[in-house]
From TrEMBL:
Organism superkingdom: Bacteria
Pfam families for the chain: Amidase
UniProt keywords, alphabetically: Transferase
Keyword Ion transport: no
Residue ranges of every copy of the Amidase domain listed in the record: 29-436
GO molecular function: transferase activity
Chain intervals for the UniProt region annotation (Disordered): 135-156
InterPro entries (alphabetical): Amidase (IPR000120), Amidase_CS (IPR020556), Amidase_dom (IPR023631), AS_sf (IPR036928)
Protein name listed in UniProt: Aspartyl-tRNA(Asn)/glutamyl-tRNA(Gln) amidotransferase subunit A
Length: 454
């Protein structure tokens, strides 16, 4: 663990005021990254030190590029970084270095952020658990117990932040791949509505569902970095007024036996904290949520069909034998999806989006992010059937926001009796990102919880 401010905005402020040297900071972050096990697939030390030196010169000249100038950041290895190979967590994709930065990388660089390197992930970003047999599986398990899964697919991004190597890291989310690893590691994350970002230069999994976003120690960091990835200035947003804000807690989650007791208890405590802070909290069931869960259960996951289409040629090639067998089997299984199920998923998606908007009517949905805490790692490495079962259970709740293209923010809600992290999720209808941000910022001010023993 290196010693510097824990959040990106605090780092940026310290750099601006001459209290933190971005060159020393970057050198420390690179050293920590090199010592980390399976967190990074590759580092970009020459670029990082060049960018840190440029930030130091700007600070000395009083010419800062903004509140994140000189702050290190890591990128999930789906993002193209000029001169580096984009592996997508695989051994079978192109070995040619990218010629250009992905749009999000280019925008963050223009805001002065320092590119540290590329983080590990599930192969092709196709799992909610984060296992990778090619580059190792990172973890940052609280307490002294056996290793637990990091969450996926943005596993390395979450663990890089949890270990304090970087204050924030970038990932992607197709079915929950930002929110799940954030939940398992006690971090904040933001899944934007898909139209908010360009995905140019980002290796796809499912075009209709993929989003890019941030995992960080604080929600403020997530939103500021999201701004600069869009090529905008980092914005200080006004928090929503709790007394004029309605939050809906879907009671179906409280009745669901698949929700672990610690997750349920911390959800209830978070709800009470919001009530005590003046938020108007309504407990009722939302048909749009239950209908979405039923649709996925009955017809399958739309992302599976799109992922199979994306990687069909790879599956039919000799290179498929070198893939993670768990990922390969999931892609092969998607061949069995009936055409009428795929069409139904596309059609119902639009009507369910409208249904959620009507039911919420300006309110924000409160739910668990994941139904359980991080499972033990070893049993899932050894048992493919158990892996498939737990992976589906892990992604079940986060799939709702993904299918409906809803902006969703995951926030830590505490720990369970085993000192494992739990998480809550705040969700709004598609496109209502800014309103969700203001509510989530206000809510996060009032959510206090015991920290895990790390």
């Amino acid at each position: 663990m290196v010693s510097y401010p824990s959040t990106a905005l605090a780092m940026g402020e310290a750099i601006q005021h001459g209290k933190l040297d971005p060159i020393i900071l970057t050198r420390q972050c690179l050293a920590a990254a090199k010592e980390s096990d399976a967190v990074f697939i590759s580092l970009t030390p020459e670029r990082a030190m060049f960018e840190a030196a440029a930030a130091a010169r700007r600070q000395a000249q009083g010419a800062s590029l903004g509140p994140l100038d000189g702050v290190p950041i890591a990128w999930k290895d789906l993002f193209d970084i000029a001169g580096a190979v984009t592996t997508a967590g695989s051994r079978v994709l192109t070995e040619k270095p990218a010629m250009y930065d992905a749009t999000a990388v280019r925008h963050a660089t223009a805001a002065g952020m320092v590119c540290l390197g590329k983080t590990n992930l599930t192969e092709l970003a196709y799992s909610g658990l984060g296992l990778n047999p090619h580059y190792g599986t990172p973890h940052h398990t609280p307490g002294q117990g056996e290793p637990r899964v990091p969450g996926g697919s943005s596993s390395g991004s979450a663990v890089a932040v949890a270990k304090g190597i970087v204050p924030a890291a970038i990932g992607t989310d197709t079915a929950g791949s930002l929110r799940v690893p954030a939940a398992f590691n006690g971090l904040a994350s933001y899944r934007p509505s898909q139209a908010r970002h360009s995905r140019q230069g980002v290796t796809p999994l499912a075009h209709s569902l993929d989003t890019i976003g941030v995992i960080a120690q604080s929600l403020e960091d997530c939103l500021a970095i999201d701004d600069v990835m869009r090529g905008e200035e980092a914005t200080t947003r006004e928090r929503a007024d709790p007394e004029r804000t309605v939050i809906v807690l879907d009671t179906a989650y409280l009745d669901d036996e698949r929700i672990e007791e610690g997750v349920r208890q911390n959800l209830e405590r978070s709800a009470e904290q919001l009530i005590n802070a003046g938020f108007h909290l309504i407990r009722r069931k939302l048909a749009s949520v239950s209908d979405t869960l039923h649709l996925i259960q009955h017809h399958g996951w739309l992302g599976a069909a799109e992922a199979y289409t994306e990687y069909r040629e790879l599956l039919e090639s000799e290179a498929a034998e070198a893939m993670d067998p768990r990922v390969r089997q999931r892609l092969i299984n998607a061949q069995k999806m009936a055409p009428d199920s795929i069409v139904t998923l596309y059609r119902q998606r639009r009507s369910l989006q409208a249904q959620l908007r009507h039911e919420l009517a300006g309110a924000t949905l409160l739910s668990p992010t994941v139904a359980h805490t991080a499972p033990l790692l070893a049993p899932l490495e050894d048992n493919p059937e158990r892996f498939a079962e737990v992976n589906l259970a892990t992604l079940r709740l986060s799939m709702v926001a993904s299918l409906l293209d809803s902006p969703a923010i995951a926030l830590p809600s505490g720990v369970d009796k085993n000192q494992q992290h739990t998480s809550i999720q705040l969700t709004a209808p598609c496109g209502e990102d800014e309103a969700l941000m203001r509510v989530a910022l206000a809510a996060s001010d009032h959510l206090g919880f015991p920290a895990a023993n790390q």
